[in-house]
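ENTRY TYPE: protein
WANTED: fold as tokens:
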Amino acid sequence: MPLTTLDPRTALIVVDLQKGIVALPLAHPVENVIGRTRALLDAFRKRGLPVVLVNVAGGAPGRTEQPRRALAFTPDWIELIPELDRQATDIAVTKQTWGAFASTDLESRLKSLGVTQVVITGIATGTGVEATARQAYEHGLNVTLAIDAMTDGRPEAHDYSIRQVFPRLGETGTVQEVIDLLETRSA
């Protein structure tokens, strides 16, 4: 479903744009993802809308069939990239799971601000972004996915999430479409 509207209290959630992850091999140029995310950050901050910056510093426990990628969650690896220009008003969330809502206080923080909708960007489309979108949807938030501001290390996972999963969780569109809705709303 194409973008139709943004609620008055919409928050931007940026998933895992951190030094270790942006250095991994990705399906799309990470510079484009960062640049488009930065455009959204500027647009949300200009309007005083909440911004959430998420990083991952671990993984959920439990056995899996596929071996887990051994990642070194060093302080440098988990540090948010400087291009995000973290502000004192930004909400910072460090997660230990794929989604930003599981085992964090993100839901209560957003609800305390009156947030009813989220726009999500980041890496990786088929894991961190998708899990965050699913959890937001399950918590009753309206979900918008800025599909040109995300990528994945697995092109097939990126494409599957965008074509099959995201339309069932919310609306999808480009960064420019989100910015146009923000401008229309504040005009």
In short: Strands lie at 10-15, 51-56, 91-95, 117-123, 142-151, 171-173.
